[in-house]
Design brief:
Layout: H1 2-9, H2 20-30, H3 33-37, H4 45-64, H5 70-90, H6 95-115, H7 123-133, H8 141-159, H9 163-166
Helix pairs in contact: 2-4, 4-5, 4-6, 4-8, 5-6
Length: 174
């Protein structure tokens, strides 16, 4: 009897929480040291945001290939927003600033989603990586080559996973 009453007053879990393991995998992949050491991506707040956006964009592109999994992409994007909101508050941004910054971050993610659709090895992808990861400054040749190779490797790994498996994954290939 008490379990029925408890169930009645216990809120349902957020549906997006089903994507939490995948979100954690996106962040872990984006924080892998090779991006910052071998890839020479700046290990700064901006650099980390840019790497999370890159990995998230690649995962969302793969999810987009299965229209029946569109909700999973929405839920993953919601987790991005929730996480970025929490990170900004943790480093001291106030309520008045967080909303504007989150809007900018979502806009930046949208731009990257478009830019990172470019084919592996293309000049468009190379330009997008330089523009976003190095903020338009000269990218170190070896670092850029590493990032380009790792993006191709991650895309290939994602392509090898059925989307239905990816949306419940707790780690990414690579």
């Amino acid at each position: 009897m008490f379990s029925a009453i408890r169930k009645l007053f216990t809120p349902d879990p957020e549906p997006r929480e089903a994507r939490r393991p995948l979100w954690n995998a996106v962040v872990a992949t984006a924080r892998a040291p090779h991006w910052y050491v071998d890839g020479q991506v700046p290990d700064t707040l901006d650099g980390r945001f840019d790497m999370i956006s890159l990995v998230l964009a690649l995962v969302l592109h793969r999810i987009d290939e299965a229209p029946d999994q569109a909700l999973a992409g929405v839920e993953l994007t919601e987790l991005f927003v929730v996480d970025m909101d929490g990170q900004m508050r943790q480093i001291g941004f106030g309520d008045m600033v967080v909303g504007k910054q989150i809007g900018r971050m979502v806009g930046a993610l949208g731009g990257r989603l478009g830019a990172y659709r470019a084919a592996d090895g293309s000049e468009e992808l190379k330009a997008a990586l330089v523009r976003n990861l190095w903020r338009g400054k000269d990218a170190p040749a070896a670092g850029l080559a590493h990032v380009i190779a790792e993006v191709a490797k991650l895309r290939a790994g994602l392509a090898a996973i059925p989307v239905e498996t990816l949306v419940v994954a707790d780690r990414l290939p690579g």
